[in-house]
Amino acid sequence: MRSGNPVLRDSTFQGLFAEGERMTLNGTVAKTGLLLLAVVTGGWTWLRFSHAAAEAGNLAAGMAAIAPFMWGGLLAGFVLALVTVFKSNWAGITAPAYAIAEGFALGGLSAIFEQRFPGIVLQAVMLTAGVMAVMLTLYRTRIIQVTDKLRTGIVAATGAIMLLYLVDMGLRAFTSIQVPFIHESGAMGIGFSLLVVGLAAFNLLLDFDMIENGVDQGAPKYMEWYGAFGLMVTLVWLYLELLRLLSKARR
Q1: Model confidence, pTM
Q2: Where does residue 64 rank: exposed (0-12), middle (13-18), buried (19+ CB within 10 A)?
Q3: Residue 22: strand, helix, or coil
Q4: Dist. CA 7–CA 216, nearest whole Å
Q5: pLDDT tens string 79-98
Q6: Residue partners of 180: CB distance under 8 A and separation at least 6
């Protein structure tokens, strides 16, 4: 079983058999909801940015006020994600901590986008929820079957996009060159963002499938937290890509 999500990979549930309580689908859904609620910490970063920017009369002051929390949240989230991947039995602690750290980062980033494009954050949140609901419906009704060919295609495409992003980051860090269609707001740039949003949406199907397989295999109860964590990683990616797409459309 393959997934484009590096968290929910082939071996995630292999060799895990519960001696006591087992992982359930309802339990995973409930824990996903709890993790998403933890992102409310982003509201604090948002308010801090807005207050500092309004008080000083410029966005630079807002950026300075939230920079430690935003970058600290990104770094802490990355470390906690790695710990969760390699120590899945710690997910009950590390997954909520990851959600809180990610909330600080997303709150700051969302506030910056909102200042430039008023109303964009609400649109991105609603679209993220809508896309998830649609993909879950398509998966549960088996309108889209998660086959080996579909998995292979999505994983290959996701890997290609991640490689392209890494190349762009490297070029921007060490040269003045950047991959144009990733950032431009023309037809090609918007088309690229639509493609990536669609790819993130299809990754949700693979996540649902991997979680369902974990339930069927009788994985331990703590894997509910791990499954919720993996799903949240994809949802964060989808939200960020929707923000990028909407900002290109606004420009």
Answers
A1: 0.87
A2: middle
A3: strand
A4: 19
A5: 999 999 899 889 999 999 99
A6: 188, 189
